[in-house]
Write a structure and sequence with these properties.
Length: about 280
Amino acid sequence: MLDKILSYDLIDYHSIHITTEGLLKLIIVWLVTKLVLILIKKAFKISGKKRSLEPEEWMTFFIIIKYFIWLIGITVMLNIIGVNVTMLVAGSSALLIGLGIGIQHFLYDLFAGLILLFEKKITIGTIIELSEGKVIKITNVKMRFSEGIDRDDIRIIIPNSKLLSNQINFWEHNRSKSRFSLDIGVAYGSNPELVSDLIMRAVTEHKDCSKNPKPFVRLVNFGDSSLNFTLFFWSQNKFRINQVKSDLNKHILNLFTENNIQIPFPQRDIHIIQEVKK
């Protein structure tokens, strides 16, 4: 009796043959596939929390795995109902090859993003210098691409494959200090001690300039039209150092103006020699 029920034909159309037993197998395969996906998703969720990942960061990779598992499950279910999967795959092989070529860069970016997320070599706040010399501060790391801003506050999107395969220079962490210099020229006749004091006043009053190590000023050379000084200072704000230098230049200029220190510009004296008529 049970054998008759299990072997009862529910659908018999051309090559598709579904019995009661086949229907039960289809349901079991579907349930097992769903259960496997639920367990994998929970595992990804737990791993993401341990690694402080955002849901969208691990969800993209889970979706790829989900499609792959469903592909296996559907293949098994097609075999159960009598569909020749081998012929189906052979007939669509050209389409699959074309599709694979089209999405290979997409998949490369995804797997590169996965490596970056789990290795954590590039995280939010990391400052990198790309091979073309552009300095970027990373603001977000996603599965397919990373986001950042350059020194002009322009938003940059970088494919993760580029971060993984190209040469990248990592700047020191923001906690460390780097030394920078600023060149200043003043007119001949200026008091060099006063000039040095005013420059030191400007740098010590700036919040992004470190007081330890202590900044210092040197009179480096005598130019064609100016006494040339160089300010050496340390700062943690390496990414915004151009803005720091701009602030210093403005402050120094104001102090020079208040103290009658002139900043020269190139000039030439022309002497006209008149011929003496005999």
